[in-house]
Design a protein that fits this description.
The structure holds two protein chains of two kinds. Chain A is built from seven helices and eleven strands. Chain A is an alpha/beta fold. In chain A, strand 1 and strand 2 form a beta hairpin. Chain B is built from 13 helices and no strands. Chain B has one domain: ABC transporter involved in vitamin B12 uptake, BtuC (Orthogonal Bundle). The chains are: A alpha/beta, B mainly alpha.
């Protein structure tokens, strides 16, 4: 499989604080990756960096197939300004994902509306097409945001905490939907979340972020006490109960741990 | 029946026709610009631009320039200052707006004081603050028509990136929209619109046309195009009703003192907002029941 994006030796400093340090990982075409880390660990910063919305202090982000420049990267941000009074139907909002960057007075061609309907169908959101975007539930909104990101036929989908604020049922629905979309459309997925468990069944790769550093590889290679302890800089336990993973971090002062050896573990 | 509502002289008064024409054109454009202003949560910025327009209008009064030039130049300068101070971070926008608002109000106080000292400019303060729609000249109508046509084309040209970056600036940026540039363009559009509104309602009340009609239209719960058309209908309707009410009010009292047209327009806008809100509340209650 060819790499779709390569993050190489990246540091990001913001307001005098090192938010990301020496970050190295890559994503392959068509794979499903989870970007896992606690709140404030730098997940959104990393996604914004990959999209070119932030410039790294050091290092670089490479797109071997030029996907970013050719606008073949879909993005679902953590926040959208969707007040209940926003006068947009779901169809109009999804269409903005296709032509929202274009200036001018041209009317939307029939092919754009056809694509919008097709992509809404593919995320099982066809019934939402005429609804007002501000009146959707959390799970419905995530489907529509996904359609909005997919409508431009991306090679990679970056999703920033799409599972936050969803109940367990809706979380499971969205994860399964994303896996089906990946299988059907061949699009690679990088989804950020603070809980790894909902993604364990579908992830090909985990990109674990803690203490400004990143470890990347297969789930069972990364989510291990030795790798995560090196990442956090102090002792961490990984407990597996009934198929679920629990990462238990101790006090940073408890025990010194050798600082970050080789964190790309494949 | 009609003369019961409208005094007969209204139909033959060219000053009223001219004022109504200027008001209707400005109200229609303000409605569309105002719709994006409300969607982008920039109503406070619009209000601040009106205060900067007031400083511009007062400055123009001092220099014996046309008020329209002062209003538009002033609000454009204010828009530039806001973007310069607050363009880097969204959350700094309110601070930038507040800083510009404070400075503009101070300048307005100084300029209006100096204008009031000049005995040849009696009534100028009143015109700057509260407008004088019945005293606009024919060449102002043409200037307003050209400016409004340019604004309409400008808003339509940046419409999709503007809407996209209003709803989701990060997704828009990721898709290639130059969000800061779109924001700067829209602030300039808003500034010119506020300057034009100041001719209709005066600087103090100019944001009423920008915010009130779109706010009422948004409560109807329709799509973007229908909401924009409803906002334009509310705005132009308020101007026409306000012009008629102001003209008629001359005959309402024995003293023959007409109500200011800006007051009448603003009251109609408030009435529209109240009625639409009441209808929506009633519809929701029925829906719940």
């Amino acid at each position: 499989m060819s790499n779709i994006v390569e993050v190489i030796g990246v540091d990001v400093e913001m307001a005098g604080r090192l938010v990301l340090s020496d970050v190295d990982f890559h994503l392959e075409a068509g794979e499903f990756a989870g970007l896992i880390g606690s709140n404030g660990s730098g997940k959104t910063t990393l996604l914004r960096l990959m999209l070119g919305l932030l410039t790294p202090t050091r290092g670089e982000v490479r797109w071997p197939s030029d996907a970013l420049a050719q606008r073949r990267v879909g993005y679902v941000p953590q926040k959208v300004n969707l007040d209940v009074d926003v006068p947009l139907r779901v169809r109009d909002f999804v269409a903005l994902g296709e032509d929202g960057h274009r200036y001018g007075l041209r009317r939307r061609p029939r092919s754009t509306w056809q694509r919008v309907d097709d992509v809404l169908e593919s995320v099982e959101g066809a019934a939402l097409a005429e609804r007002r975007i501000g009146a959707l539930s959390g799970g419905e909104l995530q489907r529509v945001l996904l359609a909005h990101a997919l409508v431009s036929r991306p090679e990679l989908l970056l999703l920033d905490e799409p599972l936050a604020n969803l109940d367990p049922g809706a979380t499971q629905d969205i994860v399964e939907l994303l896996a089906r979309v990946r299988d059907r459309e061949g699009v690679a997925v990088l989804l950020s979340a603070h809980d790894i468990n909902s993604l364990i069944g579908v992830m090909d790769r985990v990109v674990y972020i803690a203490n400004a550093h990143v470890a990347s590889g297969r789930t069972n290679e990364v989510v291990r006490p030795d790798v995560l302890s090196a990442l956090y800089g102090h002792h961490v336990d990984v407990v597996r109960v009934h198929g679920r993973v629990l990462v238990v971090t101790g006090d940073a002062n408890d025990e010194a741990w050798p600082s970050h050896p080789e964190l790309v573990v494949e | 029946m009609l003369h019961w509502l409208v005094e007969p002289g209204l139909w033959s008064n060219s000053a009223v026709h001219l004022g109504a024409a200027v008001g209707v054109v400005v109200a229609a454009v303000s409605a569309w610009v105002g719709l994006f202003t409300v969607l982008r949560a920039q109503s406070f910025a619009g209000h601040a631009l009106a205060d900067v327009a007031m400083a511009g209008g007062a400055g123009a009064g001092l220099l014996a320039w046309p008020a329209l030039v002062g209003f538009v130049t002033g609000s454009l300068a204010g828009a530039g200052a806001m973007e310069l101070i607050g363009v880097e971070r969204l959350r700094q926008r309110d601070v930038a707006t507040g800083v510009v608002l404070g400075a503009a109000t101070g300048l307005s106080a100084l300029f209006l004081y100096l204008v009031s000292l000049d005995s040849s400019s009696s009534g100028a303060t009143q015109v700057i603050l509260f407008g004088s729609l019945f005293s606009v000249s024919a060449h102002v109508l043409w200037l307003v028509l050209v400016a409004c046509a340019l604004l309409a084309v400008g808003v339509a040209a940046i419409g999709r990136p503007l809407l996209f970056s209003s709803v989701s600036p990060e997704a828009a940026g990721a898709r290639g929209v130059r969000v800061a540039r779109v924001s700067l363009s829209f602030t300039a559009v808003m500034a010119v619109t506020v300057g034009l509104s100041a001719i209709v309602l005066g600087a103090v009340l100019s944001t009423a046309l920008l915010i009130g009609p779109p706010a009422a239209a948004l409560r109807l719960g329709r799509g973007l195009r229908a909401t924009g058309l409803a906002a334009a209908a509310f705005g132009t309707g308020a101007v026409l009703a306000g012009v008629v009410a102001s003209y008629d009010s001359y005959y309402w009292w024995p003293s023959h003192r007409a109500l200011p047209v800006s007051f009448c327009v603003v009251m109609v806008i408030v009435l529209e907002l109240v009625v639409v809100s009441a209808v929506r509340a009633l519809a929701r209650r029925r829906g719940d029941g």
